[in-house]
């Protein structure tokens, strides 16, 4: 069996080498003609799986993307050709939620507010939105969810419409890029919605760049508007609107999902799908490939914001990514360079915490940290 794999899939060798001949390729420079004998194609978001690529792969039986988003794959073309496909839905939900949490603690520190006094509106209550909701609730933050498609499918959680979200102190976007249908998300935050934001509000986009009109955002900032934005994703990556940079509070190169665990989970999910499709033994767990954590355990006496913030930022401090992004993104190929050389971080679960009391323990576990075994 010939397995072709984008070189950015973490632990692909560990999971797939036993099942056939592994061939690695670079997503951006892929020549589809090199895939002629591929039985299995494993990608991340940089490989565009379209009709042109598929027309060169007569043997292809399965395409998997180790990412949550699938907008780089032409699913209709795959279906028309009878090729099985899969994604890694939810693999990096924890990672993105932790990216948002890190950004909120940094902003709280910079702007002098308490997170528990804020209401956070979450647009898209799928894997990422639900993780974020759970983590915020664990530390006493009030949240609202908006997800009309899920609501229409009978999701029983309380939901609000987008107008109620627009009144939240903080708005965090976690929708897929949807072009049409009843609930499109392309430019969901267009010039009208952006214009409706007050200078006290915070808007976070860690889903897809095309959900937020970057040019309209720039125009509003140039007119003197002062609301706060956090952008992990940009319109038209990697050729982004760099004029926006000075106005954005925190930013990065589409790395919100890039934790070691998130990337490993993505590859592991495809491993499970291939095992099922080809009736192969699925013997490796997720933990079998992950290295031990290098963090020394810490203690947390109270849920005072500064203490929780210190713990969060000791695992992941978004300011490092922000600084690197601003330094490198204007260099030729900068955006992609940052992504390829990203120092993949760990998730909160890699840090063991001894809690001062049961309320602290409940909160830190809800946030995703691991309780130190002797405090269980
Ligand atoms: N920055 C990153 O590194 C990163 C990492 C993971 C995911 N993502 C992006 O974030 C998106 C969400 O990820 P996920 O794993 O939660 O996906 P998901 O499919 O589990 O959840 C997306 C949710 O958005 C909802 N939705 C769709 N259209 C909507 C609309 N118009 N208004 C409100 N809600 C709407 C869907 O019903 C669904 O529940 C992905 O599709 C991907 O594009 C980005
Ligand atoms: O949709 C996703 O899962 C994320 O956006 C993902 O992190 C992006 O995938 P990458 O470009 O890292 O392959």
TrEMBL record:
Pathway: Cofactor biosynthesis; pyridoxine 5'-phosphate biosynthesis; pyridoxine 5'-phosphate from D-erythrose 4-phosphate: step 2/5. InterPro entries: D-isomer_2_OHA_DH_cat_dom (IPR006139), D-isomer_DH_CS1 (IPR029752), D-isomer_DH_NAD-bd (IPR006140), Erythronate-4-P_DHase (IPR020921), Erythronate-4-P_DHase_dimer (IPR024531), NAD(P)-bd_dom_sf (IPR036291), PdxB_dimer_sf (IPR038251). Residues 290-367 form the Erythronate-4-phosphate dehydrogenase dimerisation domain. Substrate binds at residues 45, 67. Its EC number is 1.1.1.290. It is an enzyme of class 1 (oxidoreductase). Residues 33-265 form the D-isomer specific 2-hydroxyacid dehydrogenase catalytic domain. It is found in: Cytoplasm. PROSITE patterns: D_2_HYDROXYACID_DH_1. Catalyzes the oxidation of erythronate-4-phosphate to 3-hydroxy-2-oxo-4-phosphonooxybutanoate. HAMAP family: PdxB (MF_01825). Belongs to the D-isomer specific 2-hydroxyacid dehydrogenase family. PdxB subfamily. This is Erythronate-4-phosphate dehydrogenase.
């Amino acid at each position: 069996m010939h397995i072709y794999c984008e070189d950015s899939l973490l632990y692909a060798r560990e999971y797939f080498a036993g099942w056939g001949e592994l061939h690695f390729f670079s997503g951006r420079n892929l020549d589809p003609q090199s895939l002629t004998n591929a039985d299995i194609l494993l990608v991340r978001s940089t490989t565009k799986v379209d009709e042109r690529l598929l027309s060169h792969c007569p043997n292809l039986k399965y395409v998997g993307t180790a990412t949550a988003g699938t907008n780089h794959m032409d699913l209709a073309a795959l279906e028309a050709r009878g090729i099985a496909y899969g994604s890694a839905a939810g693999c990096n939900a924890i990672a993105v939620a932790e990216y948002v949490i890190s950004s909120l603690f940094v902003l709280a520190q910079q702007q002098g507010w308490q997170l528990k006094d804020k209401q956070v509106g979450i647009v898209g209550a799928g894997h990422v939105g639900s993780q974020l909701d759970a983590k915020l609730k664990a530390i006493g933050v009030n949240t609202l969810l908006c997800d009309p498609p899920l609501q229409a499918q009978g999701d029983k959680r309380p939901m609000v419409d987008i107008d109620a979200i627009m009144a939240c102190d903080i708005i965090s976007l976690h929708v897929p890029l949807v072009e049409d249908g009843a609930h499109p998300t392309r430019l969901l935050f267009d010039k009208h919605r952006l214009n409706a934001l007050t200078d006290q509000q915070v808007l976070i986009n860690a889903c897809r760049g095309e959900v937020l009109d970057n040019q309209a955002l720039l125009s509003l900032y140039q007119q003197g508007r002062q609301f706060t934005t956090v952008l992990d994703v940009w319109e038209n990556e990697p050729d982004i609107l760099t004029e926006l940079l000075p106005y954005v509070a925190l930013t990065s190169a589409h790395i919100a999902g890039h934790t070691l665990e998130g990337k490993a989970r993505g590859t592991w999910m495809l491993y499970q799908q291939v095992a099922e499709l080809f009736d192969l033994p699925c013997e490796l767990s997720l933990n079998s490939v992950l290295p031990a954590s290098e963090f020394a355990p810490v203690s947390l006496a109270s849920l005072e914001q500064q203490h929780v913030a210190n713990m969060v930022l000791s695992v992941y401090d978004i300011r490092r990514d922000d600084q690197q992004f601003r330094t490198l993104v204007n260099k030729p190929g900068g955006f992609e360079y940052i992504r390829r050389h990203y120092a993949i971080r760990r998730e909160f679960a890699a840090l063991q915490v001894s809690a001062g009391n049961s309320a602290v323990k409940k909160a830190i576990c809800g946030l995703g940290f691991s309780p130190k075994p002797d405090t269980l």
